[in-house]
């Protein structure tokens, strides 16, 4: 996603944010050296920034291991951000209807840098279903929601790299392949991802627009590939398009 140029005098704040973004589900704890190398800062500067973040409970340090992790203050901010999201509030009843009527898991996602962040989710009635993914971010090129976003934002597409990492044998890995899919997605109004994010998982997705045509986020429905055959994906795509229209403020 295209980033705005930072204002002058914001270097310290940007460095602190860069440190926070180094933490992930795969790497929830990091050492001072790892943070210093990851943020491309010397250890003295890194330590000073970490102390400042600790003072606001945004970072915490394990006194036994010396490793750092995200602090409780960030959890509080995250909860506040979710609670204050107008899109999430309006989408919640629609997600419940989608999950109830389709039997599959319905998700609300928003773009964050080069991924789609799941900010709400309602699990379907099936025992085997996607669940517990709120707060997870997946690469755009491998998800139905991300593909829908890319197809509907030509400026974002122009800034994409030529190659992408393969998450499975089915993952699309080139900008050229994505461009070919864009026309199909725009014509149908929804996108598909079949075994591209992980083997055995398929989903369909569509974007949600605001009153002036800007993309607010995306809706998706996903489940095991053996239940998500071609016919069902088309049916779910049509259902998602109607749900997306209902989320438009002018509906």
Give a quick rundown of the structure.
This protein is α+β, with helices and mostly antiparallel strands. The protein contains nine helices and eight strands. The protein folds into two domains: 11-77, Orthogonal Bundle (Arc Repressor Mutant, subunit A); 85-247, Beta-Lactamase (2-Layer Sandwich), CATH 3.30.450.40.
What this model shows, in words?
With 251 residues, the protein is α+β, with helices and mostly antiparallel strands. It folds into two domains: 11-77, Arc Repressor Mutant, subunit A; 85-247, Beta-Lactamase. It is 42% helix and 19% strand. The protein contains nine helices and eight strands. The protein has helices at 11-20, 32-39, 43-55, 72-83, 86-102, 144-152, 154-158, 175-188, 230-247; strands at residues 59-61, 68-70, 105-112, 115-122, 137-139, 191-194, 201-209, 215-224. The strands form two sheets. It has a six-stranded antiparallel β-sheet with strand order 5-4-3-8-7-6, with helices on both faces. It has a two-stranded antiparallel sheet with strand order 1-2. A hairpin with a 5-residue loop joins strand 7 and strand 8. Helix 5 (86-102) packs antiparallel against helix 9. It is globular. The mean pLDDT is 91.
